[in-house]
Amino acid sequence: MHWINFPLLVIMIYSGLRIYRAEQVYAFGLFGWEWFKFFPAGFNDTLELNRRLARGLAFHLNFAWLFTLNGAAYAIYLWRTGEWRGLVPSRRHLGDVVLVVLHDLHLRKEAPPARGTYNEAQRLTYSLVIGLGALAILSGFAIFKPTQLGWLTWALGGYTSARVIHFTVTVLFSLFFVVHVLQVIRAGPRKFMGMINGYELAPKPAGGTAEAGDG
Ligand code: HEM
């Protein structure tokens, strides 16, 4: 389920950007000065986002169902196997997040011990990302069916607010996506393969054969 997220996310982000290209409303500015516009012409040209609205919509709304089904399957899997316990950060250990970050920045020698497969920073990040996935689905349906799902659109603050949430989720997802892939590449080929096939080979013991370990 994890590796399906990679192509799915690429398709959702890319097709979403094709839709956004048709009406680029977001920019950062102050006192009438526009500092940054989502997105500069060079970005749209490089990614060939221009005049692709119909195809973008078709891809986006078809793959949205797959994204939703995959998300639901993952949620059921986490719940049924109890694996969610290994992902949720605990308030008691939240301070470890700072220590992990300091360690990763080489400002602290010792890393705090991981609880299970993931350390506290990973637990927090992965939980937030799962929350982002849920928000992408909720805000997506809120702007897809604002009449039939009026209560959902209302709960997200109305159509415009739901649209802003949907776009913000995309920006956060894109940032996570880039950092996550870079981290896995940096962690080496064993972790990279683990990301694709779901398990990781333990390092080869001296004179022995490699065994499957936690992934
Ligand atoms: C990770 C998943 C997703 C990402 C990254 C994503 C991204 C985007 C982006 C960037 C836009 C353009 C926003 C704008 O113009 O303001 C968009 C539009 C849209 N998305 Fe998504 N989306 C995701 C999932 C979904 C899902 C699950 C649905 C559910 C149906 C959905 C439905 C829509 C709709 C209806 C629009 C607006 C189309 C229009 O303006 O006519 N999206 N999405």
Bound compounds: protoporphyrin IX containing FE
Question: What is the overall pLDDT average?
Answer: 87
Q: What is the strand content?
A: 5-15%
What is the count of structural domains? 2
Q: Main beta sheet, described?
A: 2 strands, antiparallel
Helix/strand structural class: mainly alpha
Q: Kindly, what is the distance between the CA atoms of the first and last residues, rounded to a whole number of angstroms?
A: 13 Å
Number of strands: 4
The residue ranges in which pLDDT falls below 50 over 5 or more consecutive positions are 208-215
Provide a concise account of the structure shown.
The chain is 62% helix and 6% strand. The protein is mainly α and 215 residues long.
Itemize the secondary structure elements and their pairings.
Blueprint: H1 2-22, E1 27-30, E2 33-37, H2 41-46, H3 53-81, H4 96-104, H5 120-144, H6 150-155, H7 159-187, H8 189-197, E3 200-201, E4 212-213
Antiparallel strand pairs: 1-2, 3-4
Protoporphyrin IX containing FE (HEM) is lined by residues 9, 12-13, 16-17, 19-20, 60-61, 64, 67-68, 136-137, 140-141, 143-144, 163, 166-167, 170, 173.
